[in-house]
């Protein structure tokens, strides 16, 4: 008779384990799975790095319309002057032109199935409001796919020492 409670306990434990394994994925588990998948195939990373380069190239060619189209309407950019809205960003880059740049040490972190963060160091030369400049800056940018379009939601620049 002592074996009956033990058998019932084993049966309950086995059934509980089977139910846990068979349950549908939670939202968090789906996000983690999509992040792992995106990180493994690299396609999201490639898309985001490509979009970041498009944004930089738009500043190089002076194509403010393209730069604006790559920037989310609710974007926030932060630099040594503080946070700025899309309207402020577009006003500030009107007098800004990159003549040469290189990105190094690009790192990628998927955030969700449709968003990710990149960080990198940029070495750039250009003209800002009539004055030539050379700079090295650490950049972090968050990109998200909204509809069928990738847009930059957030970017922060920190001068490199």
Structural overview:
- The protein has 2 domains: 1-41; 42-159, Roll (Nuclear Transport Factor 2, Chain: A).
- Helix content is 42%, strand content 43%.
- It has helices at residues 3-22, 27-41, 43-61, 64-69, 86-93; strands spanning 71-79, 82-84, 96-112, 115-128, 131-146, 149-159.
- The protein has a 6-stranded mixed beta sheet.
In short:
The chain is an alpha+beta fold. It has helices at residues 3-22, 27-41, 43-61, 64-69, 86-93; strands at residues 71-79, 82-84, 96-112, 115-128, 131-146, 149-159.
CATH topology of the largest domain: Nuclear Transport Factor 2, Chain: A
* Biggest sheet overview: 6 strands, mixed
Strand order of the largest sheet: 2-1-6-5-4-3
Shape: globular
Q: In CATH terms, what is the architecture of the largest domain?
A: Roll
Number of DSSP helices? 5
Poorly predicted runs:
3-31
As a percent range, the share of helical residues equals 40-55%
CATH class of the largest domain: Alpha Beta
Number of domains: 2
DSSP strand tally = 6
**Rg to the nearest angstrom?**
24 Å
Q: Mean of residue pLDDT?
A: 82
N-C termini distance: 76 Å
The helix-and-strand class reads: alpha+beta
* Portion in beta strands: 35-45%
Q: How do the SSEs run, as a string of H and E?
A: HHHHEEHEEEE
How is the topology of this model organized?
Blueprint: H1 3-22, H2 27-41, H3 43-61, H4 64-69, E1 71-79, E2 82-84, H5 86-93, E3 96-112, E4 115-128, E5 131-146, E6 149-159
Parallel strand pairs: 1-6
Antiparallel strand pairs: 1-2, 3-4, 4-5, 5-6
């Amino acid at each position: 008779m002592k074996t009956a409670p033990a058998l019932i306990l084993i049966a309950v434990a086995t059934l509980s384990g089977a139910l846990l394994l068979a349950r549908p994925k939670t939202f968090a588990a789906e996000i983690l799975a999509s992040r792992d998948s995106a990180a493994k195939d690299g396609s999201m990373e490639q898309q985001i790095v490509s979009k970041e380069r498009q944004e930089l190239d738009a500043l190089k060619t002076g194509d403010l319309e393209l730069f604006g189209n790559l920037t989310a309407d609710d974007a926030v950019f932060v630099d040594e002057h503080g946070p700025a809205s899309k309207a402020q960003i577009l006003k500030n880059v009107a007098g800004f032109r990159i003549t040469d740049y290189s990105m190094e040490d690009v790192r990628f972190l998927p955030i969700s199935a449709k968003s990710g963060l990149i960080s990198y160091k940029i070495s750039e030369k250009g003209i800002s409001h009539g004055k030539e400049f050379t700079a090295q800056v650490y950049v972090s940018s968050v990109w998200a796919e909204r509809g069928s379009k990738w847009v930059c939601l957030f970017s922060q620049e920190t001068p490199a020492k």
